[in-house]
Design goal:
homodimer, about 325 residues, alpha/beta, Nucleotidyltransferase, domain 5, 5-stranded mixed sheet
């Protein structure tokens, strides 16, 4: 019997977590998911992840040989050291960092690598989705917060202290009327263009419908002036943020996830127009701005890529 | 007799050009310089460069073996293809680009590489100066314009279309009162913090001394209120610009050249304070912001590094 080489993927989210078995080509062979016991703290969450992973490894007995494990975490992470830091949706984790990659590697006896989910999803879109073929690509998530993953010259840029990519917190309004961001800074892109910010601004404008980005988008498409104004503001600011990215890094492609997918042209048209107003033509004329392509498969492929990209990097560090 | 391996360096500036022979360790063995006939157009400039280079190669007969040529150009450049584009201080060059690396390689029969001078100086500070030991470093020139060179994960980031690093043209004032930049955009960092901008703003404030950045710095140190206010504004905006860089790229070191060297603490103290106000502590606490160290040797070493860095990159393209 032909036994596949498989990668174990672990996706740790604030609401749900999953373990998967996938081929290196991204074919899904097994998936198990459960809710994340986020409110019970890190020990409970880690136990849940290991239990999911053991289910997957048991299933792997009939499916193939597992060569490694990739973890995608919805929290700040120091990928080089496999360490996770506290996030609002994962309360009670140690502020000095939890060495999750090593814990999982020891429990499962598998080489294990870990990435922040924005970085891991950037890698997934680059390898399997809307970023294919680009040497230099920026990926933006635009959900509860705005994060990004940067693939520069064919490699994920992780930053010196395991951070960076915080495009959600660059300033797009320097005036005294700038909105205060949840991070404490003023005028952050996230305060205008994240899902909750668009909902909040629509409500301030008089929108009275369901409090979700998708519902505000629906209302805007139906002609609701408050919803339309919120998206116009988000698009203007998002274009300004992307202009900064473009002037500094000159990517050939920008991939927009989450809200941009729900909102489509409602956000993209205004964003592109604002971007082109605020950056040089020489840097925008051959640039493409496209929605993410992986949809429901993004999280699974992100966990896979957390492993694959590190395995590809000759000088990568892996907990094993 | 022990013959050294030498690199021919060509520095093309808007005012002066030079050819040098240096060891790969940066030891200068020969230097010849002349004024750049910039007003006579590209053919005259290219002829001058080749004549300088031939002088150097003749001197090399007694000094060692020349293994390659690096060119640092004070103009936009597509380094991968060795092509130079028009710049304000080099008028009359072809808008479709001049293949300077190939022209020089053919004339001298040497493998030749070319970089924009901000990128080349970034490499020089990284290899020999204030950037030594940093995996991720940003270098800013702050002369007539503001440019930058980014060394990310130990490699120069050149951008998809041979551009990027345009930190001088990211927006640091989004208000209606923002200054208009010479590039046509509004609120660019360069419109506040370049040498000429500081001089212009000081004059608007009532400064009546010599029209140079060094003179305004001198006046500010003597207590001139107009000069002090111009530097305070430049520092505030520069800190905002660096904050964007830090949030996006999380460098471990920022090296400031040109004006920052003349102005010293007059600029650096306010810049650091503004930077720390506009970026997260997690990304600034281990970051160092330092003045460039190479001084008069920066241009020669930049030309050397234009060759060395490309020779180091396994997938580099070299005209030969």
């Amino acid at each position: 019997m032909n036994r596949d080489r498989l990668i174990l993927g672990i996706d740790l989210g604030g609401t749900k977590s999953a373990a998967t078995l996938q081929t290196s080509g991204g074919e899904l062979r097994y998936r198990v998911a459960t809710s994340t016991p986020a409110q019970d703290g890190s020990d409970a969450v880690v136990a849940t992840l290991i239990s999911l992973a053991r289910n997957a490894l048991q299933a792997a007995n009939d499916l193939g040989t597992v060569s490694g494990c990739g973890i995608s975490v919805g929290a700040p992470a120091d990928a080089a050291n496999g360490v996770v830091y506290p996030a609002p949706n994962l309360p009670g984790w140690s502020p000095i960092g939890t060495p999750l990659a090593r814990i999982v590697a020891d429990a499962l006896n598998l080489p294990t690598c870990l990435e922040n989910d924005a970085d891991a999803t950037a890698l997934a879109e680059w390898r399997f989705g809307a970023g294919r073929g680009a040497e230099t690509m920026a990926f933006l998530t635009q959900g509860t917060g705005i994060g990004s993953g940067l693939v520069l010259n064919g490699r994920l840029h992780r930053g010196a202290f395991g951070a960076g990519g915080e495009i959600g917190h660059i300033c797009v309004d320097t005036s005294d009327e700038a909105r205060v961001c949840s991070c404490g800074l003023c005028g952050c892109l996230e305060a205008y263009a994240s899902g909750p910010s668009v909902v909040r601004i629509a409500a301030e404008n008089g929108y009275r419908g369901e409090q979700s980005g998708a519902a505000v988008a629906e209302a805007a498409r139906g002609g609701d002036a408050a919803a339309l104004a919120a998206f116009a503001l988000a698009a203007d600011k998002l274009g300004r943020g992307l202009a900064v990215l473009v002037m500094l890094l000159n990517p050939e492609r920008i991939v927009l996830g989450t809200l941009a997918i729900h909102a489509g042209d409602l956000l993209l048209t205004g964003t592109e127009s604002s971007l082109r107003r605020h950056a040089w033509k020489r840097l925008t004329e051959d640039l493409t701005v496209v929605p993410a392509q992986l949809g429901d498969r993004a999280q699974d492929l992100a966990a896979l890529c957390a492993y694959l990209s590190r395995a590809d990097e000759s000088n990568g560090t892996m907990s094993q």
